[in-house]
Specification:
Layout (H helix, E strand, L loop, with lengths): L2 H55 L1 H12 L6 H26 L5 H15 L2 H10 L5 H11 L9 H4 L6
Length: 169
């Protein structure tokens, strides 16, 4: 038996084993990444659902959404803060869905439903005012999407510190 040939064969088998291991590892990583993206998308959907449940379970929250969405200016200062917090909770989840779709982790069919929800909320005058006041908190692409749905140019409202002064009103 030729030991050189045996050594070469062993090296070849070792190289094949390494390649197969790398292919297997790559498949595992891709599968794990897909699952992590699905989990993230599902978690965000649950978060948005929880906001809906909170609004539907509380007459006060429902009124806050109804009044604030229709006429932000009709809210008193405390309800303005509460409305902005509600919009922040809602739109943070929607923004994350936007980012997942942009990365290819949220399929087009699911994105269409999210995009429709964004469009419905963006049509509300109070939500437009929220984004005029707090749009700088969001990634530019998402903010552009919201304003396109609103059919308006991006605007900038007052600074937060100006709205929280004791004499503001």
């Amino acid at each position: 038996m030729n030991w050189t040939a045996v050594g070469a064969l062993a090296e070849l088998l070792g190289a094949v084993a390494v390649v197969l291991s790398l292919v297997y590892l790559g498949a595992q990583v891709r599968g794990s990444t897909r699952q992590a993206k699905r989990d993230a998308s599902r978690d965000l959907a649950v978060r948005i659902s929880e906001i809906s449940i909170a609004v539907s379970a509380s007459r006060e929250m429902g009124e806050l959404l109804l009044v604030g969405g229709g006429s932000y200016e009709s809210l008193d200062r405390v309800d303005e803060v509460r409305f902005r917090a509600l919009m922040n909770a809602l739109f943070r989840g929607l923004e994350q869905q936007y980012l997942l779709h942009r990365e290819g982790a949220l399929d087009d069919e699911a994105w269409t439903a999210v995009d429709n929800l964004i469009g419905d909320f963006a049509s509300l005058p109070g939500v437009q005012r929220y984004f005029a006041d707090r749009g700088q908190w969001y990634v530019p692409g998402f903010l552009d999407l919201v304003w396109r749905h609103a059919g308006k140019e991006r605007t900038a409202g007052p600074k937060m510190a100006d709205q929280y002064r004791p004499d503001a009103g």
